[in-house]
Design brief:
Shape: elongated
Structural class: mainly beta
Strand content: 35-45%
Distance between the termini: 26 Å
Largest sheet: 6 strands, antiparallel, barrel
């Protein structure tokens, strides 16, 4: 992850040694000015107290692809006589592949086609088939879990429409189920190869474009489901998106040198056409978390660890310097929200000189 915000752990920013206060420098010193020599008692440089909005943001490396990758296995033995083109889309009732010249067609459903259905059969797979027949206009029955003669009659009409033998039964050599229309990601066997039941024929995905990326568990509050993000695409353009899912299980990340636990997130595009035809392409996800509006902020490296506990800043005014204890708020963009001590916009606070 490429961070656009400061680490919130103040202990990593400050150190107290030998009874004096030492400040660990964080980030750049842009906007600072010289405030005097070391022996004047003044800080080496100063930066202004600013008022405005502070946004907790970050960037993450992601991969642009498609949702719901799965395999389509052969439902019957035979010779593959047709396979679809990689990158094509198959919808309900269209051919997925052919074995011995017989088309296996796509129907929609979450369960597999694992048996040959015939009158007298009962089960959820029956209802799944009947709902597809009804959606295609082959009616005359009530979609339920019973395969009746009315169901068989509808199947015969469906078979006749495709020039198939009108048996009134349907099984794995006729249809395969998927949750919705699929995109052909790859073909596992070539035309002329022998297909075996259970052996992969196709690799498919859903048709929806998504980006997946990893985020430290400690930073997952930046990207809850529904969070709006911007995705920087490979062609240099950007597209708006929304976090659609957040993994519930923390796992080691892809980078072996980063041992912090990660969660995997997915982003769907608000305008899918903006994603173009890229697949498995690297992208950058820009996340914006909490926004604190109209707050006072100082550079993170202006903070001091006070001997009595807590944190403060050195306020420089009229050639003099005074320590002011402050309450800390959100850390972001190399700055920290501060309050208390009579701080006002435009005041100068001490920072290390670059």
């Amino acid at each position: 992850m490429r961070r656009g915000r400061a680490v919130a752990a103040v202990a990593a920013v400050l150190a107290v040694t030998a009874g004096t206060i030492a400040v660990t420098q964080l980030g750049g010193g842009s906007g600072t000015e010289s405030a005097g020599a070391k022996n004047t008692g003044l800080p080496q440089a100063t930066a202004p107290v600013e008022r405005g909005d502070l946004r907790d943001s970050a960037q993450a490396d992601g991969t642009l692809g498609y949702d719901r990758q799965r395999k389509i296995n052969a439902g019957a033995a035979g010779t593959l006589t047709w396979t679809p083109r990689t990158g094509s889309t198959v919808e309900r009732n269209e051919r997925l592949y052919e074995v011995d010249g017989r088309a296996v067609r796509l129907l929609y459903g979450s369960g597999p086609m694992y048996r040959t259905l015939k009158p007298g059969d009962e089960g959820r797979d029956v209802e799944q088939l009947e709902r597809n027949l009804a959606a295609l206009g082959y009616t005359g029955f009530t979609p339920d879990t019973e395969y009746t003669e009315l169901t068989a009659a509808a199947v015969k009409r469906w078979q006749k429409a495709h020039g198939a033998k009108q048996t009134g039964t349907v099984g794995p050599r006729d249809v395969a189920f998927a949750p919705g229309k699929v995109r052909i990601k790859g073909v596992a066997a070539a035309v002329g190869d022998l297909a075996q039941p259970g052996a992969p024929v196709l690799t498919t995905t859903g048709s929806e474009r998504i980006v997946t990326f990893e985020l430290d568990v400690a930073e997952s509050q930046l990207a809850k489901a529904g969070t709006k993000v911007t995705v920087e695409l490979p062609d240099g353009t950007s597209a708006p998106g929304t976090v659609s899912s957040v993994g519930r299980t923390a796992k080691p990340g892809k980078d072996p040198q980063d041992g912090s636990p990660k969660v995997t997130l997915a982003v769907s595009f608000d305008r899918p056409e903006k994603a173009g035809g890229f697949d498995q392409s690297p992208v950058t996800v820009n996340l914006t978390g909490e926004t604190r509006e109209d707050v006072l902020t100082v550079p993170v490296n202006a903070l001091l660890a006070l001997p009595g506990g807590g944190f403060g800043v050195e306020v420089v005014s009229g050639g003099a310097v005074r320590e002011v204890k402050v309450e800390l708020g959100m850390f972001a963009e190399g700055r920290v929200e501060v309050s208390g001590g009579g701080l006002r916009e435009g005041m100068k606070v001490g920072v290390p000189k670059i």
